[in-house]
Each structure stands twice: as structure tokens, then as C-alpha cells.
């Protein structure tokens, strides 16, 4: 009896079964893009933050500072017509609710809309819409061979237009930003992502909270908002390189006011998205969970296959091995040097021999754990 009194919650506290879990901020886990933003922190912003203030901030996300929407680039209000929205694969459309007819303001976008942020340029770089369309196709299938084919087509198109964008595309496709030892962490939580969405779309946290209850995914919430908006000034197309470099810059933001600067950078990316798929996967990338079910090994193998086929079409060396053999060698090289850039770029320039030479054991570069090659005994 004495034990049960000590274990009982204080008077007025909710039962343990409904008590929200404690959210603790963790440092980068060494996985390249940092931690996956827990869905409960997003739910805390969209649910508990749907008050009369419209800012929708909560204190549950210990990793985010308190900022105002004025610091996160407020947008201009207006009106727009309603439009439907399709969701791919694991993002199937939900039945229409009363909140689906809510009006969201029209966004004005000009060259000076995002102060301090470099404007994306589509010249000489692959549009991000190409990558987001591939992500939507990946979500629409569960077949592994079909996923391999989708990634292969996407990387072949990137190699034909801008080979320099291949490595950023591989990292973005695998929820990573760099090698594991660099410990790149975006350092954003649910409330920071929610504030960026509010600042970029003009929708209040109450409206976003209603959409969250209908969809349950921050990317789908952003896509639903964009599907009902019409831009007065069409923004310049986002590029793969611009998205990747912006994410890297977010990782390096430190010091006083870094939270507001991170929210501003995220809002700039979200505001520049031109279609719902771009919005959906941008927000999921910020949450480090794009939900395509494509691992780094799958993405890397597809990139290697695209390089081999390109070299064969460009009359590569007569003794170049077939695709499967090159993929096996690339896995061995990646085990000795787990850096996508040091594996793919030499392979593209000089073939297998150059890749082997670039991926030799290097002091200061950690190997992957266990064996460099799987053995049976």
C-alpha cells in the first residue's frame, strides 16, 4: 500500500498511459544527417500549438529555442481557390474533412523574399523536382527491383545533365548529408520545422494542426497546404545542389540566434517549392525521414550502375567489368573508406582502378566495422 502511494502520479496529473513521453535532445548519432525528428515533437507543435496565437510554439521540444514568426520571415496574406491533392504510395489520400476546405493565403515570392539566402539557380544544376518525382515513385511501390530501376533512371538523368549533382542526390536519397564521422546534424526539432512551415505557407498552427490530425505526417501536411495555394510570382526552380548546400549550412549554424536562422533557411526552401511533391519531401528531409524505404546500399548500388552504363555508352575502357562486378568492388571500397564522394567520383572519372586507388586505407578515416567483405566462416 505504501509502495502504491509512492508510485501514484501527483494529484491532477494525467495517467501514465496518456502522459506524453519526455523528449530529450540527442546529439548527432554519426549517421550523416543526424537524428530522425520524433513524430511526437511534430504532433506537439501541431496539436498543442494550435492556440489563438497562431504561432503554435510549445516547450516540449527541448532542442528548439523560442522564436517569433516575425524572425522567421512572415508571408503576405490573400485568398486562393481550393484544389485537390494526390498522394503517392504510403501517402494515400484521406477522406475529405471539414478542414480540407480551409483557405490558405497566396504566397508572394520575389527576388528579395528571403534576405540573406542565396537564390537557387537552375543553370547547370539538376532541378529538385526531378528528385522529388523519383521519391514519389519510390513511395508508390514496394518492389525492390522496381525501386532499383527508378533510382537508376533518376541517376542516369542526373549524369547526363550535371554529373556534379550525383553525390548530393545520393545523400539526399538516403537521408544523409555526409560521411558518418563528420557527424552532420541538422539540429532542428518538431517545433522548428512547424515554425518554418507556418512562416513559409502563411497557414496558422490551428490549420496545420487540423491537417496533422487528418494526415499524421508533416510532409503530407505541407503538400496539402501547397496543393491549395497558387503563387502570384512563380519562384525560381529549386535545384539539388542548392537544397544540399542549404542543409549543410544549417548544420554549421551556431551561436546566438542560430535557431531563428535555421528556421529562416528552412522556410526559404519550403517557400521556393513549386509543387506538392517538392514540399512533401523537403519537409521529410528536414525531419530526416523521407519514407522511401531505400537504404544507402540500395541508392549507392543504383548510382554505381548508372556510372557503369554511362561509361559504357561513352566508350569506356575495353576491359571494364560488368555492372554487378563493379557494384561488388564498390562495396569493398566503401567498407574500407565509407565516403560516397571518394567512391563515386573516382569511378566516374577513371573507372574501377581509380576508385580502388582513391579508397585505399587512410590514416584518420575510419573503416566500417566488422569485415570489409562478407565471409561464411
UniProtKB/TrEMBL annotation:
It comes from Alexandrium monilatum. Residues 127-302 form the DNA ligase ATP-dependent N-terminal domain. Residues 1-20 have a biased composition (Low complexity). This is DNA ligase ATP-dependent N-terminal domain-containing protein. Keywords: Ligase. The keyword Ligase applies. Residues 48-57 have a biased composition (Gly residues). One of its GO terms (molecular function) is DNA binding.
Amino acid at each position: 500500500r505504501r509502495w502504491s502511494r509512492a508510485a501514484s502520479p501527483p494529484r491532477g496529473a494525467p495517467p501514465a498511459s496518456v502522459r506524453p513521453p519526455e523528449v530529450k535532445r540527442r546529439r548527432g548519432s554519426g549517421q550523416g544527417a543526424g537524428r530522425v525528428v520524433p513524430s511526437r515533437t511534430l504532433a506537439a507543435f501541431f496539436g498543442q500549438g494550435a492556440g489563438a496565437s497562431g504561432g503554435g510554439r510549445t516547450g516540449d521540444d527541448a532542442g528548439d529555442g523560442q522564436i517569433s514568426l516575425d524572425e522567421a520571415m512572415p508571408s503576405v496574406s490573400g485568398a486562393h481557390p481550393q484544389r485537390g491533392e494526390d498522394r503517392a504510395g504510403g501517402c494515400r489520400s484521406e477522406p475529405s474533412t471539414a478542414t480540407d476546405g480551409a483557405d490558405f493565403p497566396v504566397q508572394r515570392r520575389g527576388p528579395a523574399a528571403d534576405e540573406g539566402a542565396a537564390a537557387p539557380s537552375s543553370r547547370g544544376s539538376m532541378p529538385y523536382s526531378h528528385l522529388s518525382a523519383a521519391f514519389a515513385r519510390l513511395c508508390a511501390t514496394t518492389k525492390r527491383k522496381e525501386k532499383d530501376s527508378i533510382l537508376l533512371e533518376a541517376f542516369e538523368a542526373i549524369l547526363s545533365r550535371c554529373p556534379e549533382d550525383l553525390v548530393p542526390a545520393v545523400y539526399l536519397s538516403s537521408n544523409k548529408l555526409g560521411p558518418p564521422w563528420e557527424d552532420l546534424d541538422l539540429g532542428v526539432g518538431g517545433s522548428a520545422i512547424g515554425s518554418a512551415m507556418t512562416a513559409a505557407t502563411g497557414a496558422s498552427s490551428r490549420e496545420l494542426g487540423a491537417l496533422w490530425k487528418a494526415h499524421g505526417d508533416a510532409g503530407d501536411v505541407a503538400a496539402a497546404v501547397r496543393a491549395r495555394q497558387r503563387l502570384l510570382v512563380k519562384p525560381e526552380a529549386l535545384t539539388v545542389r542548392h537544397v544540399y548546400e542549404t542543409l549543410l549550412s544549417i548544420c554549421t549554424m551556431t551561436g546566438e540566434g542560430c535557431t531563428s536562422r535555421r528556421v529562416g533557411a528552412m522556410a526559404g526552401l519550403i517557400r521556393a517549392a513549386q509543387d506538392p511533391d517538392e514540399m512533401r519531401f523537403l519537409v521529410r528531409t528536414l525531419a530526416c525521414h523521407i519514407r522511401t524505404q531505400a537504404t544507402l546500399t540500395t541508392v549507392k548500388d543504383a548510382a554505381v550502375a548508372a556510372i557503369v552504363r554511362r561509361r559504357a555508352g561513352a566508350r569506356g575502357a575495353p576491359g571494364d567489368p560488368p555492372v554487378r562486378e563493379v557494384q561488388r568492388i564498390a562495396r569493398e571500397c566503401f567498407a574500407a573508406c565509407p565516403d560516397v564522394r571518394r567512391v563515386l567520383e573516382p569511378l566516374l572519372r577513371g573507372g574501377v582502378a581509380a576508385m580502388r586507388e582513391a579508397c585505399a586505407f587512410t590514416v584518420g578515416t575510419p573503416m566500417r566495422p566488422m569485415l570489409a567483405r562478407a565471409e561464411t566462416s
